[in-house]
Amino acid sequence: MAAAQQLDQARPRARPQTERRMKRRELWLALAFIVPGIALAVLFKLVPLIRGFHLSLLETQGFEEPSFAGLENYRTMLDDPVFIGSFRNAAVAFATLPIWVLLPLVLAVLIFQRSPGWKFFRATFFLPYMIAPIVVGIMFRQILAPDGPLNALLRAIGLAPLAIAWLNGPNSALLSLTAVALWSFFGLGVLTYLSGLATISEDIIEAARLDGAGFWSLLLRIVMPLLKPVIGYWTVLCTSGILIWMFPLIYALTKGGPGNATTLPEYLVFTTTFQFMNRGLGAAIGMALFVFVAIVSAFVVRRMYAEGKAS
Amino acid sequence: MSQSQTLRRAGKRTGSAAAPGSRGIVRLVVTAALAMIAVVALYPLLFTILNSFKTRTGFAKNPLGLTSELTFDNYIETFNRMAVPRLFLNSVIATAGGLVLSTFAALLLAYAVTKLRFPGSNLVFLFIIAMLVIPSQVIIYPLYETILDLGFGSTYQGLILAYAAFGLPISTYLLAAYFRAIPDQLIEAARLDGAGEMRILFSIMLPIATPAIAALSILNFVWMWNDLLLPLVIMGGSDKKTLMVGVALLSGQYDVSIPLVSAGLVVALLPVMIVYLLFQRQILSGAVAGAVR
Amino acid sequence: MNSSSSRKGGIGRHLAATAFSFLGAAALVAPLAPAAHAADVTTIKVLNWEPGGAEYWKQLVAAFEKANPDIKVELETVPFDRYPEVQGPYIATKSGPDVMENNAGLELYDRRSAYAELPADVLEAGKELITYSGGCLNFDTSKSCYGLPFGYQGNVMYYNKKVLAEAGLDPANPPKTWDEMDAACAKIKSVGKTCLALGLSGIFPAYWDFPEVARNYLTEDDMRAMLTGDMPWTDPKMVNILKGLASITQKGWANASAPSITMLPDGADLFQSGNAAFAGTIISDAVNWAAFDKALGAENVGAMRWPTLVADAPLAGSFSGIESSVFGVSSWSDKKDAAFRFVKFMAGPENAELLTKVAGGISLYKNVDPSALPNSPALSQILEIIKKPTLHAGVILSGQEADALARGWQEVTLGQLSIEDWTARMQKALEQSPSKRKK
Q: Has residue C86 got a pLDDT over 60?
């Protein structure tokens, strides 16, 4: 601390020339520091994105040499009901986002208040997140089977009408898929919120307590506003989770079916590119997904930026 | 942790503010609800483990409950079909490499954009976190083409670099947020004492940021270890494929039964479970907790 | 102050070098790895999905390397259903394996630019096989050939004699027509079992079910027209095939989970567990007589032709046979000689014996010793069935068509799609198929 004060006094006295030299050195240093990260981002994200855009303008006939096709792939894409449907499906999955955000929050507050067995619950809730999505998907294929354990349970507790073929119905399949994804991710949310809760200031809580706040009003009026940054961060992860991490689950659980009921855009990119070998069209769908992802998460990135940039 | 005691007390007092008898009921309902969710979280795992010990006919006769004829054969068959030790080693190399490289690059980046003054530092930060909006599915094909062009197809390097690039935005964001909170005076003082930037970064910033690094390491470890698409596409079916690709291969094989696939799944998730058991305290308390603010 | 600043600069330069070397070092290491082999041994990389199982491939490679000491085989094994996503980029970037595997028929034709034409001396090996036309353009051995097959593959329907007896049916006389099948299914369902184990997800409906209904309505010429894109799905024959497929699920023969499961492993498991009377699968590679004999006991397993819809149709009594898969040499390989030797070995007598003995497969080699074949009632029935082969209508579907067929069937089963709309989707898929559409 003493050194810092010394610096504050020393600063104004430094000669302009030295100052300039220092700035140049700092510039070179910064450049050296940012190069590895920038190189990674450019080589393995930006360049592929640009190549993807270029590819989307090409006509790719199976494995023949590609030729320039302008916007033809985009036209084909927009005419395709499967493409439109995949975005409708994504919208449905996004509609469940409040559950993704709120369920872990409620659980975190309950654990935080040292409900009996909180240590066990904390450890248990995080367990699913550790399991690979492809493993989760294969596991749940059995759990959700018409005669699987879920339906056996429903029948046993007298809810036989609810024991449906979960992956057969178009809506139930999409919701099952989303629910399995939630199963896989909610524990991370609980842990994230718990870490945020640990930083809430005493005075604010004390004041709320004096006002006689109950659990829900504590949650809504105190915890949620104070945890805004954490909720925002968790929303980023969920947003990308729904858009990016569903693929192995779709692959293992439904393969996009029945029909195209659980085909999300990312899965359509995959099938078009690798199964149908139409790389140009696959790239066009990829670009559409990219725009969609960008719009959805732009505000999140903006918030992260506002939070993390130099003021 | 101590300043948050009040919230806990607040929670308890909320209960006691109500009628004396209802406090116990509330607690009971809360515990029951938590227990139910715990069962939901655990059951699929137990179900899979149980199935992995069943014979094919045993599973057919009783797919849900316990059967009398339990067997270890599925595990022997799993090891016969997958080169488990090699796959495990491959996963360790790829995950560790990706983890170290992305953390290293993120450390340098975060330090540069938060503690070094240069024009466009905000732009660099924005550029890196904006990469978050490019999902791997969107670019998987051109990404693989790029990796092949660099001569990294079917190599550890290819996968490690891809992992590092995809782990970078969140790592940089978390570290930058952490570094921002460290007062500039601390660094200026170190500079006055004659410390170079590398020393400042690695002997002053790094220890302070340990919780953040632990947190992003956990985040990155879990997804890198568990990822399927990148290793599948980059490693193909080569002998450098990861454990997850191996499992996908097992379940994609022609002659598999559900008990055999279950055994493969257990083998695949065992390393992660062991890590979880060993580092449970760190994972659940300090690590992620310190990072997010 | 000055001195400390200059030190900072030094570290900065050092760091920049470190940063670049991070990406550079990796590039240097990469080419070093394969250089380890002895100079006089050629290593060829074989991309495959391990048809016949791991043990068979281990022995196959050992036998080949023993016969060709100057060649080492490196296997790159990818599961069947993930194969295209690995092979696709290799082909597009013209890099990777020296030998590749593909299904005979359209899958191979679509990729023919990636294969080197087989030279005459390699083709000689093909002449010892029952057929090798699936590796040649338009199933015509007088045209260019790109790969050689080794095993015989095709569809039959397996039945569980125990379940048939339990339902009061005669295990020696399984149903021969669609109507008999319907009656049998009613009885089987009344004893609480599934009649036909079916999974409609993935490629399986196209490969395992479609050809068996198609044989009732198409001639071989019709199938060749399909291959070249000259048979529209709106043709009444094609619509009849879709109607036939739809009737399987609409009549309630299949398990309720059919629309959302794959035939492997779930559908086959249903049959192997003894809970289903029938399953339409294949003769080689897997979920075949050998696997079912092992799971259910050889005495309980029977194999038959699928029941007929049109008993007097020209191909109704035929077997949809196809080369199981073909191996060819990639056009970019710089080890073509060694690679061709491997392809030739695959089609040869030594591999034929291994396939029969180790994998329980059915070899295409003409002179397999019958005593090498295991004793299985189902296998005996299969060996009778395959004597009257015809073209396999499944392998002439494009990827787009196969996908639309499966998804459409799922929705028709669930009552969400009419046959007309399914037909329209199939036609659209045809028009989007790279090698079939008319520009």
A: yes
Confidence of residue A15 (pLDDT cuts 50, 70, 90): low
Q: What is the amino acid identity at position C427?
A: Q
Q: Provide the chain A residues 10-39 that lie in CB contact (below 8 A) with chain B.
A: 10, 23, 26-27, 29-31, 33-34, 36-38
The total number of structural domains that make up chain C: 2
Q: Are C249 and C409 in contact (CB under 8 A)?
A: yes
At C107 the pLDDT is 86
Indicate whether C341 and C314 sit together in one domain. no
Among residues C18, B167, B151, which one has the least CA distance to residue A41? B167
Domain with C354, as residue range(s), is: 42-152+323-376
Which one-letter amino acid corresponds to residue C222?
A: D
Q: What is the pLDDT of residues B185-236, one digit of tens each?
A: 888 888 888 888 888 888 888 888 887 888 788 878 888 998 888 888 888 7
Ordered by start, the domain boundaries in chain A are: 73-306
Q: Are strands C389-390 and C194-197 parallel, antiparallel or unpaired?
A: unpaired
Q: Are B257 and C285 in contact (CB < 8 Å)?
A: no
- Predicted local confidence at residue A61, as pLDDT: 67
Q: Assess C328–A contact: CB distance below 8 Å, yes or no.
A: no
Burial level of C247, CB count in 10 A (0-12/13-18/19+)?
Answer: middle
pTM for the full model? 0.82
Instruction: With a cut of 50, say whether residue C30 has pLDDT above it.
Output: no
Q: Does one domain contain both C233 and C269?
A: yes
> What is the share, in percent, of chain C residues with pLDDT greater than 70?
91
**What CATH superfamily classification does A73-306 receive?**
MetI-like (1.10.3720.10)
Is there a single domain that holds both residue C219 and residue C170?
A: yes
* CA–CA separation, C370 and A95 (whole Å): 63
Per-residue pLDDT band for C77 (boundaries 50, 70, 90) equals confident
DSSP string, C73-134: EEEEE--GGGHHHHHHHHHHHT-S-SEEEE-TTHHHHHTGGGBPPPPHHHHHHHTTBS--GG
Residues 6 or more apart from A4 whose CB is under 8 A from it? B183, B185, B186, B188, B189
Residue C61 domain-assigned?
Answer: yes
pLDDT for residue A12 is more than 80:
no
CB contact under 8 A, B150 and C27: yes
In this prediction, residue A202 carries a pLDDT of 64
Confidence of residue C392 (pLDDT cuts 50, 70, 90): very high
| Domains, chain B | 2-52 (no CATH), 78-291 (1.10.3720.10)
**Is the pLDDT confidence value at B33 over 60?**
yes
Residue A160: CA atoms inside 13 Å, Cβ hemisphere, count?
Answer: 2
d(CA A171, CA A92): 9
With contacts defined as CB-CB under 8 Å, which chain B residues touch C8?
196-197
Q: Would C28 be classed as within a structural domain?
A: no
Does C56 lie in the same domain as C131?
A: yes
